[in-house]
Amino acid sequence: MDSFLEEEEDEEAPAVVGKRKRRRRSPSAQPPLQPPLRLPFLPQQPVSSNEHKLNFRKSKEACLSYIQDALLQKQWKRAAEFLTCYVESLEKDYSREHIGPSEVCLEHVFHLLCNGQIDEAYQNLSLAESWRFGEQTAIQDKEMKLIQAYRGLLDYYSWSKQKDILLEHGEDGFSDLAVEQEMHGYFRKAAVNLKEIIKIPGVWDVFVKCYVDLLEFYGDHNEARQVLNEYAYNSKFPANPNAHVYLYQFLKRQGESKKSLISALKILHDIVPSHELMIDFNTMLQKSKKRKKRRLGLEVIFTALDYAGWKENAKAWSCLARQMKQIVISEKHLDWIKQEWNSRKDWWPAFHFSRYLAKRNWQENKSLSYEKALVAGILLGKDCKYFKYVSHQGCKAQLKRFRMLKKFVNRHSLVYLRISGPPASSVQP
Amino acid sequence: MEFPAALFPAYFSAGPPREEGGPAPVAGWGEHGQVLEGGPGRRQVKTAFVPRRGATGERWEAADAAAVPVLLPSAGCWFPPPALQDIVYRSGACRKLRVGKSGATLDFARQLGHFFMDHPEDAFGSLGRLLHKNFYLGNSKLKRPARNSTIRMTALMEDIDRLEARRGCPRQHLASRLRWFSHLCRDWLFEVPLGLLADCLHEELVQQWSNLLFDDSFTGGALAWLPPEDGATPVGRLVHPGGQAMNHLPSIPDFQDVVLEELPRAQGSPQQFELSGRIRQVAAARVDGQDFVGVRSDYHCGVWRVLGKTGAAPAPLQVIRTDMPASCLTVRLQQLRHDPQTMFFRDYSPWRWSDFTAHPRVLSFADRTGLQCLDARAPKRCHFDLFKVGEEAGCQQGERVVLPMYLGRAHPSQYLVTTQFSVYVLDERLPLVPVLKWAHMMEAPPLFAHLMPGKPGRSHKVLLGASRTQELLLMQYWGGSQSACQLAGTPQKLHNIAGCLQHLPTQLPHRHHLLQQRLTAPAAGLAAMLQEDGPHKSMLVFQLSEIGDVFCQRLTHKAAQPPAPLSRDEATTAPGSSPLFEGPASSPQGLGSEEEEEEEQTFYLSNLEVIVDEEEGTPAPMEEAELLQEPCASPEPSSLAVPSPAAALRYRRWLRAFFRTCREPSRHTWTPSLSQRRLFTHRDLEGPAGPSSLHRQMRQRLRQTMQEGRRIQRWEPLALQPPPLPQTLEPAGGPDPLSTRLTAAWAGDWEQWWEERTSFNVAQRQRALRERRRRQKRAKGRRSLSASFTSSLTYQSELSELSDVGPQLLSPSQPPILSQEGSPPAGSPPLHSLPTSPAPDEALLSSQSLRCRGIPKERRKTLRDYLSVWAEGPPEPPEPLGSQASQLCIPSSQSQLSSASQPRRKRPRMGF
């Protein structure tokens, strides 16, 4: 990590030598005053003795900055002119660090792909793959891997097209051997390339999905599971929620047991408690017979609703309302609610149950306000602003649902005291 | 809260940034980054791909040629921030030139002097007490025994008092007693430890120096926009620091109502709160329909609640004091973390930042090395790293976090992090891996950012602003829920404050310098808002400078063609005016508030004639014109665009107010004035009422020598008569036009010279002259009756009686100019030998004064014409004999009578 500190040392460039020298001359009593932030437009390359090279670079940088300026102001023609100069100067420049041809190729391929020229892109990729140039740097190596992966991806798309044709024809009871052959060919090419890239740490959602699809089609479920597990649980990979989602979906497709599904989602819950699958997770847990799981379900939905993104999610609120209603009616496990509520009672009222929100929710989404009012009524009692406003409006609008809600909350008004009351004695004998 | 089903492919590795990584050769331009299968039709015939960068974004175009001021410059002086030259060593002479004029005063001796004056107790307290017995301040004489150990200070005190009275006088040092005393005591009398002081000073200088390179105290920006509550009323509020010297004095946050018209204008007087410190940051948040404004200065933070109604006074809620300068402000205040060290690796910067996240109890915490999310309920236990300067995000070496910002209004789990090289968009749900990265290529690190969330299906707009260079960059992105994040469109540069300099009318050099200094002051904040009015969408961008100027610009959304009017009232008023404005640079202008501005506007347009012609006459597309104009390498884009009339009017008003504000202090600092009364006795002043003839003669010589470009070697008045001038009476032989013009300008008569030059018609000139005289007469109506006396021919005899300085009239010498006019010096009689004295005063030509003299009406004109022709004199005296005549008939001894008007009246005579 100390390498961060040394970077200033080796970078002196004549263009700003005056400035920097002066700064450096300034004093020994440096300690509290930090080396200033390195700014982008101070040269970043080490000094070179070659005068020509430096002048050249200066003019090149100036040209580049003109281009940039023109581009930023959307003066395309002006930019194009500068660009011509720039390209000319680049051609004469032997000193410059080269852009890898693979990088150029990739960009070109992206361009073609975005314009729908898939075949041309494929040709380019195949061509680039066969290139060999000098010694490969690490970056070039990575780019080559990407080129192969994208080729694999395109192979996969061809494969899936063939597969669709085949399936269509298969329904007619007619199978084309050549098409099938071709399809298997695509499979092999795709699989080889895709398999390579997903071994390297990274975000490979597209590649993983395609690869798993291929494997599943050919029935190699073990390999698929292994790939997905690796993608989700290898600590060298970033904590990508999608990795867990893919695993969960795979398990679901495989008809795995509830237990393994739950454990997959539990991990997702631990990394991204605000993930949209938490609703599924909660539903699954609520249905469980085990007390512990139902307890977890309550925690999951409470935690999800902590996040601003869930504030107006009617589905999540109905999940919570349903589970709380169950608990209140059965009068068992009120302590679960109490525990969850303890860490939230100082901020949920303002965050979820303000009068302002009551008004807005009522205007925008009646069923959301119904669910929220139920939760608010249970947690905060019938005097809570949110509940009062919504039930009042509901009764005024002669909605039966809301009248029932009012009745329910009134009947269980004692629950509120037990949930929010400080001594645990009434709850836990 | 959905998570994109698939993200763009990316490598991931941990560790410090790679060595070889540098900015991409094309700096991010035109790159697609990666592609992803996109679009809802997954199983369609053709697979569609979308790029991570380079998707088409919305088109926004500036509605005007430059940013326009929103507020008039505040009254009072302003100190430009210290510049490079103030800190680095310069020679004494150079420094002297600068100090006291413009620029920050880093004159240490003077500041120490201020300190002694302001804190005498600290500076001299204990020694003062020690020496208390030995200094006697009374008036009576000291007695014998006491005299051994006590000094009587009364005289010294008197000297000091006198010094006080003469403050500003360059001759202060003449008080020898004081000098003696200070010489004796200066080493030991004050108790400021010099070593310590030097250290502090040094530290301060280093701090200033690093601030010059990069000043992060304004991170976040000190400008906030509170949108109208219901969106219906077009009145929002701008919160910005104001006040006089934003550098040092208490500054004031203004809550200013701003009416959103075509060009937003301020309404009513701002509500002000005075704070005891320079405002560094202003943050605003809307919670449950109520606006809260947080203000950060170095050692205080405060929160206000702003009531929705316009014009209602905001209510202060809480103020917090900090021991260390605060570097960040969000509306919640709680100790999250206490750690003098940075998080991920060692960095010296004491800068810290905090912001909200998607979870109300989780806050982000940042330093230069990265960003962490901490649960405020248990900050030590529950946290995760959101962003790290390192290989994870593909950072460069030396890259540092400059500004983190929660993008909650666009997407609840998104975060923006800017560094000096790149912009990152992060998603809390996928920490460490930026979902979007783009090299912004700004010259200075973006210290300010502003988010304008887009409605579903539209892009989110992020404005980035730099401080020192005032850069403003607009970038767009979308995604985060159903689809992965994508950068949309190419980033776009917006006008900055300094950019309007080229559209302002040409100024005199020193004014231009002032203006430039003012307009190029570092930016201190930015705010923006989207305005939707049916199909017409526009964006208002406000930029604040460190000095307190707020400029704004409007961008219009170019989707519908042709560009349509922007605001409601305008749709009815200005549909027909479009042909005039169809040039690409100017979209239709709302001249909503023109009622009272009509007059000024036309006046201004007459100043801008050429430009206006261009606008109307050549509606050529800008690009074409540009192509013609600049062949290749002009660094500045020459924008042919001109500001709209409404903007031009704004500039004019702003300029007027600006020069009014900066004139006052300069007058004081530039010319120390001395009171004559203190310098001279009454008798001294009584002396000769006008300059002696010797005086005049010398002056004459001086002028002449200057005219000839020679030197005066000796001042003996009579010894050396200058050789007769080679000039003849013909105008052709006169000084060349340039020098006459310069001399005219020097003497302040440039205007007249110009008139003369343009109209050779004598009659016309006479008319003009008369006109001018009449005006001048009106200006100084009280001017001497005696002067007009003397102008009359008939009162010559009285003249000698009036002038009690008779002998001096008999000037023995002849001014050289006379000799050239052909009158021999010695030949003229004494009384008439005064043609050197200036032309008759303007006042004496007025009909009133002529009537006083009893001159019949019909003769007045003749006389006037006669006199005025005479007054013309050189450069091309039309009637050579005029001078002769004037010698004879004009006694003009008024020079002796009123010395004050002397030099001025001389001018025309001298041919200047």
Descriptive account of the structure:
The complex is a heterodimer of chains A (429) and B (912). Chain A is built from 22 helices and one strand. Chain A is mainly alpha-helical. The longest helix of chain A has 34 residues, at 138-171. Chain B has 912 residues and is of the alpha+beta class. Chain B contains 30 helices and 30 strands. In chain B, strands 4, 5, 28, 29 and 30 form a five-stranded antiparallel β-sheet that branches. In chain B, strands 8-9-10-11 form a four-stranded antiparallel β-sheet, with no helix packed on it. In chain B, a hairpin with a 5-residue loop joins β10 and β11 (265-272). The longest helix of chain B has 26 residues, at 645-670. The N and C termini of chain B lie far apart (83 Å). The C terminus of chain B is likely disordered. Chains A and B meet through α1, α3, α4, α5 and α7 of A and β1, β2, β3, α8 and β27 of B.
Nutshell version of this structure?
With 429 residues, chain A is mainly alpha-helical. Chain A has 22 helices and 1 strand.
List keywords for this structure.
heterodimer; A: 429 residues; mainly alpha; 22 helices; extended; disordered N terminus; disordered C terminus; B: 912 residues; alpha+beta; 5-stranded antiparallel β-sheet; 4-stranded antiparallel β-sheet
How are the SSEs placed, and which strands pair?
The complex is a heterodimer of chains A (429) and B (912).
Chain A lengths: L2 H4 L10 H9 L25 H22 L3 H17 L8 H14 L3 H13 L7 H34 L5 H21 L4 E2 L1 H13 L3 H13 L7 H13 L4 H14 L6 H10 L3 H16 L7 H17 L3 H9 L5 H5 L2 H10 L1 H15 L4 H12 L3 H12 L1 H8 L9
Helix pairs in contact in A: 3-4, 5-6, 5-7, 6-7, 7-8, 7-9, 8-9, 9-10, 10-11, 11-12, 12-13, 13-14, 13-15, 14-15, 15-19, 16-22, 18-19, 18-20, 19-20, 19-21, 19-22, 20-21
Chain B lengths: L9 E2 L23 E3 L11 E3 L8 E3 L5 E2 L14 H4 L4 H7 L9 H11 L1 H11 L4 E2 L7 H4 L3 E2 L1 H12 L10 H10 L8 H20 L10 E3 L8 E8 L9 E8 L5 E8 L6 E9 L2 E8 L2 E7 L8 E7 L31 E4 L5 E6 L2 E6 L7 E6 L12 E6 L7 E6 L2 E6 L8 E4 L6 E7 L7 E7 L5 E7 L7 E8 L15 H11 L3 E11 L2 E10 L4 E8 L10 H6 L4 H4 L16 H10 L1 H9 L4 H8 L15 H26 L5 H4 L2 H5 L6 H16 L28 H11 L2 H9 L3 H18 L5 H7 L4 H7 L3 H4 L6 H5 L26 H6 L4 H16 L7 H10 L4 H4 L4 H9 L2
Parallel strand pairs in B: 6-7
Antiparallel strand pairs in B: 2-3, 4-30, 5-30, 8-9, 9-10, 10-11, 12-13, 13-14, 14-15, 16-17, 17-18, 18-19, 20-21, 21-22, 22-23, 24-25, 25-26, 26-27, 28-29, 29-30
